[in-house]
Amino acid sequence: MINMDRQTSTLERSFGRLAKTMTAVFAGVQVANFVKDSTKAYIDFENGMNEVFTLLPNISNKAMEEMSEQVKKFSKEAGVLPEKTVPALYQALSAGFLRIMSFHF
Predict the structure, then answer these.
(1) Is the distance from CB of 86 to CB of 49 less than 8 angstroms?
(2) Are 48 and 90 in contact (CB under 8 A)?
(3) What is the pLDDT of residue 103?
(4) Distance between CA atoms of 51 and 54, rounded to whole angstroms?
(5) What is residue 23's predicted lDDT score, i.e. its pLDDT?
(6) Which of 89, 93, 96, 92 lies closest to 70, judged by CA?
(7) Residue from 70, 101, 102, 97 nearest 86 by CA
(8) What DSSP character marks residue 102?
(9) Is the pLDDT of residue 11 over 80?
(10) Is 1 helix (H, G, I), strand (E, B) or coil?
């Protein structure tokens, strides 16, 4: 009976160590995925805004920065991801909609 108690205790400790190791591995994977996803979202946003800026050839760097911030703010307030907002902005500009509305960037 004592031998069985020792084996059970050893097994419990082994499972405890395994659980801690798996938790650390899982957390590391989650952090890596977050960094990868965040980097991709940043690059996608920058690429999308650069596409928008091709429609505004005389836009200054300051105006580009302001427009990027406005898009982020609008996306947050509207509850729409920038991956949807930026293409809509591009389409509106290319269709001349914002010029009709007398917006100047």
Answers:
(1) yes
(2) yes
(3) 52
(4) 5
(5) 84
(6) 89
(7) 70
(8) T
(9) no
(10) coil
CA distances from 92 to 7, 39, 48, 63, 87 (A): 70, 27, 14, 18, 9
Residue 57's pLDDT is what? 87
Label residue 59 exposed, middle or buried (CB < 10 Å: 0-12, 13-18, 19+).
middle
**Tens-digit pLDDT profile for residues 36-69:** 988 998 999 999 999 999 999 889 999 999 999 9
Q: Is the pTM of this model over 0.85?
A: no
Residue 82 · residue 71 · CB < 8 Å: yes
Residue with tokens 């930026």: 86
Q: Which two tokens stand for residue 33?
A: 């995925």
Q: Are 64 and 53 in contact (CB under 8 A)?
A: yes
Widest Cα–Cα separation across the chain: 87
Q: Which amino acid is at 23?
A: T
DSSP letters along 23-80, please?
A: HHHHHHHHHHHHHHHHHHHHHHHHHHHHHHHHT-TT--HHHHHHHHHHHHHHHHHHT-
